[in-house]
Design goal:
The structure is a homodimer of 205-residue chains. The first copy, chain A, is an alpha/beta fold and 205 residues long. Chain A is built from 8 helices and 9 strands.
C-alpha cells in the first residue's frame, strides 16, 4: 500500500466516499453497493470499485459493501481513525468561521490552537481559545504534537506564514489563501479557493 | 472545443494556471514557459502543455507563453472575461466570511444578493446587502439574471435549499455543506469541504 503508487485523484475521492457512507449509516440496510454509492455521488460504480481496489478487497460479489466496515477501512487508510489536533492561523473572518465550525470533531480533527499576527487580536479569545502570536508557533506547536495547520491569512502574508509553519514542524497545510504556496516536498498543501471552484463551474454553465 | 470532450480534472487546473499567471504579471518578463509555470505550481511542464493543448495552440517553441495573452484566453475558456453576479445563501459564519471576502471581484464574480431563512437575519444588513428571505429566491433571482449561488447553510438544510435554488433557475452551486447534493444534470455543483481536504492531507502525512 505504498502511497506513491496511488494517483492523488483517487485519494481525493476517498473522503467523499467516507462522507457519503457515514451519512448512509442512518439507513436500515447495513450494506451498500458501488452502484448505490455511485448514484448518490454522481460517480460511476466502476470508478468506485477501481478506486477501492487499490487498497485491497472490500466488497463481496452479491452482497456489496458492509458500510460500517468500509467506513472503518477508509478511516484507517486516511488516518482519521484517530483525532488530529490542528492549528488555525489567522483569526479574521475565515478563521472565525473555521473556529466556530462544528463539523471537524466527528471526522477526525480538532482545532487545538489559534494564532494571529495582529496585536489587537493576540491575547483575545476566539470560541474559547486564546489567540497566540504567530511568532510563537515554533515554540508552541512541536511540544503539543501539532503537525497540521489551517492557513487563513491574507494572500500577501501566506507564503511567509507557511514558511514559519514548516519551520515549526508542520507537515500538512490547508490553505485558504488564493495563491500557490511553495513548501518542501515533505509537506503537503491543499488549498481551498472559492473563486477557482466558481471558475470551474462557469466553464460548464 | 466541446466541453464534454475535456476531462474535468483538466478543467479543474485551468483556474490554478490563471491564478498563478495573474500573480506573475507583476514580474518584468512578459513571457513564461510551461517549465516555469510548472515549477511554481508543482505540476510537470508536460502536464501543463497537455492540458492547454485541449484548447488550441498557445505557446511558441522557444519563446513560451505570452502571459497576458494566455490569461485572456484562459479567462475566455472559463467564461470569466465577464463578471458573474452570485447569490449567497446563508448569512451565518461562513456566509459572513464570504460576504466580506474581497477576492471575488477581480476574478470574475460579485456577490449580488444575500438570502437566509432565519427571521432574525432577514431584513438585516450584511456588508451593505439586505438579507432576503430564502422563500423569495424564485421571485428575486431570475429578474436579476443570477444563475450562480454559494450555499453556506447547515448540512441538514442544504439539499432543500439547493432544490429551491434549482427551481429559481440557478445553474451552478458552490456548496459549503459537507454533503453530496443531488441536482439535475443541467446544474453544476462543486463543494468545498475543509474536512475532506484535511483527510486528503493526512493520507500523506
Amino acid at each position: 500500500m505504498a502511497s506513491t503508487d496511488i494517483p492523488d485523484i483517487v485519494i481525493s475521492r476517498l473522503p467523499i466516499y467516507l462522507r457519503a457512507l457515514t451519512r448512509m449509516m442512518d439507513e436500515v440496510n447495513p450494506n451498500t453497493s458501488s452502484k448505490e454509492l455511485g448514484e448518490r455521488l454522481g460517480i460511476s460504480s466502476a470508478q468506485i470499485r477501481k478506486d477501492l481496489s487499490h487498497f485491497g478487497e472490500f466488497g463481496k460479489q452479491g452482497t456489496g459493501y458492509d458500510k460500517k466496515k468500509l467506513i472503518d477501512q477508509l478511516r484507517r487508510i486516511l488516518k482519521v481513525e484517530r483525532e488530529w489536533d490542528v492549528a488555525l492561523v489567522g483569526a479574521g473572518a475565515i478563521g472565525h468561521a473555521l473556529a466556530h465550525y462544528n463539523g471537524f470533531l466527528d471526522r477526525g480533527f480538532r482545532i487545538a490552537m489559534i494564532f494571529d499576527s495582529d496585536p489587537h487580536k493576540i491575547g483575545t479569545q476566539l470560541n474559547g481559545f486564546e489567540v497566540y502570536d504567530v511568532a510563537r508557533m515554533s515554540e508552541l506547536l512541536p511540544p503539543n504534537g501539532i503537525v497540521l495547520a489551517m492557513l487563513a491569512v491574507p494572500a500577501e502574508a501566506a507564503q511567509l506564514v507557511a514558511n514559519q509553519l514548516v519551520e515549526a514542524g508542520i507537515k500538512g497545510i490547508l490553505s485558504y489563501a488564493p495563491i500557490n504556496i511553495a513548501v518542501p516536498e515533505t509537506v503537503r498543501v491543499q488549498d481551498i479557493d472559492p473563486v477557482a471552484q466558481l471558475q470551474r463551474i462557469t466553464y460548464y454553465v
